[in-house]
Automatic annotation (TrEMBL):
Residues annotated as signal peptide: none
Compartment list: Cytoplasm
Gene name per UniProt: argC
Catalytic site positions: 150
Ranges where the Semialdehyde dehydrogenase NAD-binding domain occurs: 3-142
Keywords, comma-separated and alphabetical: Amino-acid biosynthesis, Arginine biosynthesis, Cytoplasm, NADP, Oxidoreductase
Documented EC number(s): 1.2.1.38
Annotated catalysed reactions: N-acetyl-L-glutamate 5-semialdehyde + phosphate + NADP(+) = N-acetyl-L-glutamyl 5-phosphate + NADPH + H(+)
An annotated Gene Ontology molecular function: N-acetyl-gamma-glutamyl-phosphate reductase activity
Functional pathway: Amino-acid biosynthesis; L-arginine biosynthesis; N(2)-acetyl-L-ornithine from L-glutamate: step 3/4
Protein family membership: Belongs to the NAGSA dehydrogenase family. Type 1 subfamily.
Matching Pfam families: Semialdhyde_dh, Semialdhyde_dhC_1
Protein name: N-acetyl-gamma-glutamyl-phosphate reductase
Functional summary from the UniProt entry: Catalyzes the NADPH-dependent reduction of N-acetyl-5-glutamyl phosphate to yield N-acetyl-L-glutamate 5-semialdehyde.
Amino acid sequence: MIKAGIIGATGYAGAELVRLLLGHKEVEIKWYGSRSYVDQAYASVYQNMFQLVDEKCLDDNMEAMADQVDVIFTATPQGLCASLVNENILNKVKIIDLSADFRIKDVNVYEKWYGIEHKAPQYIEEAVYGLCEVNREKIKQARIIANPGCYPTCSFLSIYPCVKEGLIDPNTIIIDAKSGTSGAGRGAKVDNLFCEVNENIKAYGVAGHRHTPEIEEQLSYAAGEPVLINFTPHLVPMQRGILVTAYASLKKDVTYEEVKAVYDKYYDKEYFVRVLNKDVCPQTRWVEGSNFVDVNFKIDPRTKRIIMMGAMDNLVKGAAGQAVQNMNLLFGLDEKTGLQMAPLFP
Ligand SMILES: NC(=O)C1=CN([C@@H]2O[C@H](COP(=O)(O)OP(=O)(O)OC[C@H]3O[C@@H](n4cnc5c(N)ncnc54)[C@H](OP(=O)(O)O)[C@@H]3O)[C@@H](O)[C@H]2O)C=CC1
Ligand SMILES: CC(=O)N[C@@H](CCC(=O)OP(=O)(O)O)C(=O)O
C-alpha cells in the first residue's frame, strides 16, 4: 500500500483528493493536514466522509509527515510547499504539489506574476511539470511533481496538437475560459458569495491572470519558440467545471480530416483525453466528477481561423485527479488506477 499524506486536506482540491484516494485500492491516507481544523474530526469538516474517514486533522508538519508516508500532496496556497520542502524530505518521499510553486521554470517570472518570493528556487529545475499526456516518462523519475494549473491543463490539451504540428500561428492564440466557483477555493471571499456569483458571469484577471505565463511556457515548449497569448478567464455560477474556447489563425488551408488526424495522433492512446465526434462541442456536464478532458475543434474557412475547445472538471483533471494520475506514474501503477469513474449526470 502507498501511504499518503495531504497538506491542505480541508480545502476543495484536498477534499477531492481524499474522495479519490479513498477509492484507490493501492493507497491508504495517513495524514489529513490542515491549518484551521487541527484535532477536529475530518468528517466534521466534510460530512460526506461520515463513517468513511474516522481520523482527525493533523497539522502541516511536512518533516514529521515524511517519516510516515511515501507521498505528500500539497493542496495549499501558493508559496507554502516551497517554504516547507527540503533535501531531507525529498530523500524520503515524493512530493506532488498542486500549487504553482514549481510549475514555472523562470523564478523571476514566478515572483512577478505571483507577487511572492520563491522560498526553494533550487528545486525548480528538477521539478517535473505533471502533465501526464506530455511528460509521462519524466514524471516516473521525479522527486517533485508540479501538478499543472486547472485552466492551463484544459487550455493546453485543447490546443497542443495544433501547435505541435505547426497548423496554427501560436502567437495568434486567444483563450477564453470559464470556471465554476470551486476553482476559487473554500476560503471566504466577497467575490464568491452566492449573490455575487449567482445569475452572473464576469471576466476577471483580464490581461493579467497568473495562469498566462504557465500556459505560454508550455505552449512555447510545444511550438519550439516563445509564444505569447491572450487569456481571459470568467467566473460562472456553477460549482465545478472549466470550459475553454480558443482561437488561432491557421497557417494554411486544412480540412476537417487533416486536423482530426492530428488530434488522433496525440490523443488516440490517451484514455483521459476524449476527442469528440465532428461538430460535437465539449460540455462541462459530460465530464463532471471524472478525470476526462473532452476536446474538439472547428475550422472557420471564412476567417481562416480554427476554434479549439475543451471541457474538464477543475477539481479532478484540473487538480486532484491529475495528482492521482501523477502518483500512479511515480509508483509504477497503471495510470488509470482509481480514476476510471464515469462522469456524473445529472
Ligand atoms: N480549486 C481548484 O479548482 C484548484 C486548485 N488548485 C490549487 O490547489 C491549492 C489549493 O486550492 P483550493 O483547494 O482551491 O484552496 P482552498 O482555499 O479550498 O484550500 C486551501 C487549503 O490549504 C490549507 N492552508 C491554507 N493556508 C495554510 C497554511 N498557511 N498552512 C497550511 N495549510 C494551509 C487550508 O487549510 P484549512 O482549511 O484547514 O485552513 C486548506 O486545506 C492551491 O494552490 C490552488 O491553486 C489547483 C487546481 C485547481
Ligand atoms: C475560479 C478561480 O478563481 N479559479 C482560480 C484558478 C484555480 C486555481 O486554484 O489555480 P491553480 O490551478 O493554478 O492551482 C483562479 O483564477 O485563480
